[in-house]
Structure formats: structure tokens, C-alpha cells
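FW: tagging you since you asked about this chain on Friday. Here's the raw sequence from the shared folder, copied in full. Didn't touch anything.
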Amino acid sequence: MSESKAYISESEVQQFRAEGYLIVRGLFGTEEVEEIKTEFMQLHQAGPVERLFHPVPEDQANGDILKQYPRFMHPHRVNELSMRYMIHPRVMHVLHDLFGEEALAAQSMFYYKPPGARGQALHQDNFYLLVEPGTCIAAWTSVDRSDEDNGGLYIVPRTHEETIQCPNEADPSVSFTTHEVVVPDGCKPVPVILEPGDVLFFNGNVIHGSYPNTSKDRFRRSFICHYTGVSTTKISNFYSPLYTEDGTAIHDIEHNGSGGPCGEEYAVMGPH
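HL: got it, structure written out here
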């Protein structure tokens, strides 16, 4: 690793393994968070990016604020800052400790989630990434304060030990995604309260999601990336190539296009 500082302790690694998630407070500083926020607001103003980002004007949104502020998929493919933060040494160092091996970056996303935006139904990330063997890990960086009022993330602790579920249909009035998984008996979603610069790391089998942003004037912006361990042999083809910490592209990972445990009808769902 390029930085030797211990960003997390052994007890935090054990917490991640027991609970399926870990919050690293203040991993990014105020200036770094402002840099990310400013960049993505400028990207939004600049308009669509083919296949990755498709905002529309208010008069074409039919009252859906998420059509004006959709998520930006894979910005690292077209934006240097996104690549830089996706493979940031601090993030990669934490991931190395959590995977127990070198991490590879698979995906970046930016969520704007303005007031009035719907949430994202409870789901599991590795349903989409189809990482084998094992699973992926998400790094969810809070750009604004994220809480219950502005549609912050909910997570179901210890569900990293669950298998990947075949989802049910989600309620479109509260979720912009169409599929939802069931919370196992004895478990419940809990809110994750994050300040700008905090990073939530969680296992790809952990059930998580969010509810609508009911605040009057608060965005809930977040920069979210997914990673695999270097021992990964298969991943959904949407996430290729993978990247090492120094930005080297890895193209020789086998594409896993089977639709996973839920069958071929889910293979065309695309990224979450």
C-alpha cells in the first residue's frame, strides 16, 4: 500500500466481520468533500453524458425530481476526479484490511438525491455485481449530512451472512428501483447517520436501502464505489475493467453474465 497509516484498528476489522459494516468517521476532510460536491454540481450543470448520466430539464421531468437529478453511473470512466477518489489511498488501505488482500475498484456512482426524491428499496449489492468467489464491498462516502430526514441510508446489521435473495417488486411511490428484498426474521433496518467525509463500508450481501428525502431543502449527495478483492475470478461484465490502486486497468476477469442465483430473467436488470 502507498500509505502506511493505520486508518482502522484490528477491533474495527473484527466489527466489520461480525456486523457486516463499518463507519470510518472523517476519512475525507472538509476541502476534499467540497471538491467532490463542486465537481458533481458542475457535471450536472454541464448536462448528459452518453450512457452514464441523463438529467432532463424540469419541464421534461413530469414532476419526478430524480429525472432532473438522476444518479451518475461510472463517472470514473469520464472524469479524473472520480477516478482519483475511487482509488484514493485511504479508501484502498481500509479495503485492504477488510478484504485481507489487495482491493480492486469496480464501480463509481454519484447520487444527488434532492428534496422530494424517492429512496432505493432494500437490496444487496452482490445481486448486481455477481462477484465470485466471495462478495464485493461498498464504500459509501457522505457528501452532505445523511440522516433520516433527508433520505439517509438504512442498513440491516449481520445480514452479510445471508445468501443473495431473489427480490420482490418494490413500491414505485417510495423507491426509484423496481426490486426489493425481504428483511430476515429477527433483523431490522437501522438508520446510518453520517457527517460529510464519513465513509460507510459494507459487505455486498448486507441488506440496505433508503427512503424518500422528506426534508424541505437538503440534498443527500453521496459518492459510492464498489470493490472486489484481488482474488476475484468473476464479475458482471458491466463492471469491467477493474482498477488497482495505481489506476492500472485489469481486463482479464471472467465476465459473470448468468443472472446469478435468480436466473436469466435478472441478467438484463443492469446496475443498481
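FW: Residues 30-46 form the longest helix (17 residues).
HL: agreed, and Residues 22-46+60-256 form a domain with the Jelly Rolls fold (CATH 2.60.120.620).
FW: great, closing this out.
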